[in-house]
Amino acid sequence: MEALRLDASFVDYLLVAAYFGVVMLIGFAARRRVSDSLDFFLSGRSLPAWVTGLAFISANLGAVEIIGMSANGAQYGMSTMHYFWIGAVPAMLFLGVVMMPFYYGSKVRSVPEFMRRRFGTGAHLVNALSFALAQVLIAGINLFLLATIVNALLGWPLWISLVVAAAVVLSYITLGGLSAAIYNEVLQFFVIVAALLPLTLIGLHRVGGIGGLIDEVTATDGPEQLSSWPATDLSGFQSPVWSTIGIVFGLGFVLSFGYWTTNFVEVQRAMATKSMSAARSTPIIGSFPKMFVPFIVVIPGLIAGILVPEIQQLKAGQPSGLSYNEALLGLVRDVLPNGLLGVAIAGLLAAFMAGMAANISAFNTVFSYDLWQTYVIKDRPDSYYLAVGRWATVGATVVAIGTALIAAGYQNLMDYLQTLFGFFNAPLFATFILGMFWKRMTATAGWAGLVSGTLAAITVFVLSEAGVFDLPGQGAAFVAAGAAFVVDILVSVAVTMVTQPKPAHELVSLVYSETPKEQRTDPEAHRLPWYQSPTKLASISLVMVIGLNLIFR
Amino acid sequence: MSEQRQHAAGAFDVRNVIAGLIGFYGVVLVLMGLFGNSPAEQAKTGDVNANLWAGIAMAVFAVTFAVWSWLRPVVVDPGADVAGDDDRPAPH
């Protein structure tokens, strides 16, 4: 069995180098503050909504999205579309319409910060620890994918590729790539589209257009792979009714609302706009490209199932040199000529690196300020915590090499990632939403709910691994997320009933009903034209996504 | 920087940087399509000169972005609330 090898030429490396040259230049310029124009683009609360909307999508269009969703497309077919049309767009619209006014008005800067102000130290400690752990595990996924590309280009063994990839990410963070994060994300979005759109079009051409794709998929896998509902393969449920419920509640509600509304890497992009209306528009504008991203991510996965011989073998259940995670790279290898190959490599490297850098820096912040400063060594000067942060960055990168090896053990990374989200995001979402809208909820209920929700998800995972019940697709993750959510709510309500709530004046700007209306509305809102009005844009987006669901049912 | 007045973001406007990079990719790909096209690569793409067409599309896109940023420049206002703290509610 041959390992995957990309045959890159000098021109391809030139195109990759051009991208990193631009990123490094922006990083240097940002650090030395050579231009107030650049300052403008980097600073908070000044950007137009289309820029932050694209950054919002781009911050999420990383390894998970590109590799995971194309792997899913190759394995499960069109039902992968649920991750976009059920699992993302509705939650993004909810974030823009309901949650964003509250975030923007109350200026909460991170999820642990909200937890501490709302529930005190118990919930804060639990949340900070689980957040730090989640970031290191997800950074491992990004690092593993980065190493896969290094390996495919240069043919080095996995562990050397991992170490090299980690070193590259460290230098990216140190050289200021991250300080220009929003700027780079917008740039990166266009490079990724420039890489994946030609890949999709050429792939479609090779299989004989859309008609050819339909015929080929129907002939090899049957028509189920072409319809998105009821997705029994994806969820692992035999019954179509339960499969639909599992997807709508588990993926569409708990996992996706949990991810989009509590993910502060995402929310911070919206906080960088100049007005409340622009902040609300950010996820809503982002939802438009988001609903079309699957056409250049999932469709190439489907095409790879036809054109790439190793993926064909996988689908036929034969031994194969590749895993589903390499479906997209396999298609890149077989379809793109030198030149476009370089654009593709640049886009993929950019996405994984930015994704991992974001995980590491989020870890760094939570570790040095939320954990070290709060619980270990207090009251030192700021320079001390900056130094701690630098060591945390190096430490997290080293640990990520270890967690990358866990990720390497999964045939389809989405299975792994959705399991992680079930552990971390689902209980967090339950506690968050309850704490925001129910002023009686007590501090003890905060941490007790989080802990019991996470334990519930882990219990479901262990039972499923032990074979007590069998859900072969991503259904176990959906069930775990649903269990975490329900248990968290039940425990929180029960504990609240027997403990003492916080006084109302401590809950201003933390609980919806206690926050004055002027803090969460934009006085200028009624003057905006329709294309800048968040609610009107959200309605258009909702109609479009329902239409897509109907067309591709 | 108090002596500075409002001005366009110029070269650091993110649209110009995008136009520059994608435009460069477009030019290189067009050259690859014209001079580097081999039968082996034609077989990969199914007899389409993919580099040439993708290169042209990227060049057109880059020009569109440059024109957009030239027609509707982003105005930098040095007095803007860049720290994001001006509208923070007063402490109680």
Kindly describe this structure.
The complex is a heterodimer of chains A (553) and B (92). Chain A has 553 residues and is an all-alpha fold. Chain A has one domain (49-376, 386-551): Sodium/glucose cotransporter (Up-down Bundle). Chain A is 75% helix and 0% strand. Chain A has 23 helices and no strands. The radius of gyration of chain A is 23 Å and the shape is globular. The mean pLDDT of chain A is 79. Chain B has helices at residues 14-35, 39-45, 50-71, and strands at 7-8, 75-76. Mean pLDDT of chain B is 74; it is low at 79-92. Chain B is mostly helical and 92 residues long. Chain B has a two-stranded antiparallel sheet with strand order 1-2. In chain B, helix 1 (14-35) runs antiparallel to helix 3 (50-71). The two termini of chain B are 32 Å apart. Chain B has one domain. At the A-B interface, helix 1, helix 2 and helix 10 of A face strand 1, helix 1, helix 2 and helix 3 of B. Chain A: It is found in: Membrane. Chain A: One of its GO terms (cellular component) is plasma membrane. Chain A: Keywords: Membrane, Transmembrane, Transmembrane helix. Chain A: Belongs to the sodium:solute symporter (SSF) (TC 2.A.21) family. Chain A: This is Solute:Na+ symporter, SSS family. Chain B: The chain crosses the membrane at residues 17-36, 48-71.
Can you tag this structure with a few keywords?
heterodimer, A: 0% strand, B: 92 residues, mainly alpha, 55% helix, 4% strand, transmembrane (chain B), membrane (chain B), transmembrane helix (chain B)
